[in-house]
Design goal:
InterPro entries: MFS, MFS_dom, MFS_trans_sf, MFS_TsgA-like, Sugar_transporter_CS. With 389 residues, the chain is mainly alpha-helical. It has helices at residues 2-20, 25-37, 41-69, 71-91, 95-120, 126-158, 165-180, 196-201, 206-237, 241-244, 246-265, 271-289, 295-309, 312-323, 328-337, 341-356, 360-385. The protein has a single domain (2-184, 193-385), classed as Growth Hormone, Chain: A.
């Protein structure tokens, strides 16, 4: 009986991680929307904020609601909101509906990120859970990697990048119907619910505050690199928009490779050493990226940054959990809330670009995040080792 549930329920849940990857579509969409609507860098910077702001607002409330309605229903709610978001550009695409689309994508993605991993625990045993969560992140990375390819294809073939939402609508509908038709035994609902006040009060602890800042910065760095890569290729290498958008695919392909390498290396190297070495590489790479102009060098250092930063979210998340083992649920909710870093960085990058008059301003903001993470990699060791486990 358990074997049957395992085989029938695992695949639609893992497919949900592919839909989770749609949030990274915003990186490439900024480039197209900015040209289409003649936005300034500051205006364009607010589009990613429409997606990632909801992680700060909704993560803990979603976790609380999930205790009441169940994990599967919460995931289905996230898929439904994502489906509505992908339908809007098909019906009408304007500046207003563009913002609405990405607001709804952000809300749907927040729900999926909070609910999918817990739902996975209902069909996978404890020993296998880590490997299947990693597999889910790999599926998400494939979605992120193919996004720029799909958008670029529709832009070249039909002269309308927003027509790519036909594909995203069909895939989301398939995911929702597949999960809806799948029976999943969630067991008895928990009487314990996350407490928002208690969760945020954890930030009074310096260790937790440092880790939370690390999550904000690593997500901001990821979204920032996704957003700035095509623009660097356009501004410095003179590439056309369609050709430049493939820079995001290079970034996500390198992140995918980095994730696999991270899984292998973290079995042999301590998390702290891994964190320090990787952030040293990332900071060096970003410092060089401030000045390089050749297409090949831009893509090389973008890929180095992607590989070096790809596993850092997992490292910080794990260290945070280990530091407060009796408050795992609260720490988990707080760290996921930190994904809102993706909303904070793009407007700062846009503002810095407008002030500097070039994308050096945007890269400098990303470099600042890298420097904070490097600082964190040295502080977390001493701070967290003092916490009794």
């Amino acid at each position: 009986m358990q074997k049957k549930q395992y085989s029938s329920a695992l695949f639609p849940i893992l497919f949900g991680f592919f839909i989770m990857g749609f949030c990274d579509l915003v990186g490439i969409s900024v480039t197209y929307a900015q040209l289409q609507f003649n936005w300034s860098e500051t205006q364009a910077g607010f589009l990613p904020s429409m997606v990632f702001l909801w992680f700060f607002i909704l993560s803990i409330p979603v976790a609380m609601a999930m205790d009441s309605i169940g994990r599967k229903k919460m995931v289905l709610a996230g898929l439904l909101i994502t489906l509505i978001a992908t339908l809007i550009p098909i019906i009408q695409f304007t500046e207003v509906t563009c913002y609405i689309t990405f607001v709804l994508l952000g809300i749907g993605n927040t729900i999926l990120q909070v609910a999918l991993n817990p739902l996975l625990t209902n069909v996978v045993s404890g020993r296998q859970l880590t490997s299947f969560i990693t597999l889910g992140q790999f599926v998400k990375a494939i979605s992120s990697f193919t996004g720029p390819l799909i958008v670029g294809y529709f832009s070249l073939k039909y002269g309308s990048w927003e027509k790519s939402f036909y594909v995203y609508t069909a895939v989301t509908l398939l995911s929702m119907l597949w999960l809806l038709a799948t029976k999943i035994n969630e067991g008895a609902k928990s009487n314990k619910t996350a407490n928002m006040g208690k969760t945020f009060s954890l930030l009074k602890d310096n260790n937790t505050l440092l880790a939370f800042g690390g999550i904000l910065c690593i997500v901001g760095l990821d979204v920032g690199m996704n957003t700035v890569t095509p623009k660097l290729l356009i501004e410095r290498a003179g590439l056309a928009v369609e050709a430049a958008t493939y820079g995001s695919s290079y970034y996500f392909a390198a992140r995918t490779i980095g994730t696999v390498l991270g899984v292998l290396l973290l079995r042999k190297v301590s998390e702290i050493i891994f964190f320090k070495v990787n952030m040293l590489v990332v900071v060096l790479s970003l410092a060089i990226l401030l000045f390089v102009k050749q297409q090949e060098l831009i893509l090389f250092f973008v890929c180095v940054t992607a590989v070096g930063s790809s596993s850092i979210f997992a490292v910080i998340y794990t260290l945070a959990i280990k530091s407060r083992p009796l408050l795992v649920n609260e720490i988990s909710g707080l760290m996921i809330t930190g994904v809102a870093g993706g909303a904070l960085l793009p407007p700062l990058m846009g503002f810095a670009t407008d002030v500097a008059g070039s994308l050096q301003g945007a890269v400098a903001v990303i470099l600042f995040c890298g420097l904070y993470l490097l600082y964190t990699s040295f502080k977390l060791k001493n701070n967290f080792s003092e916490v009794s486990v």
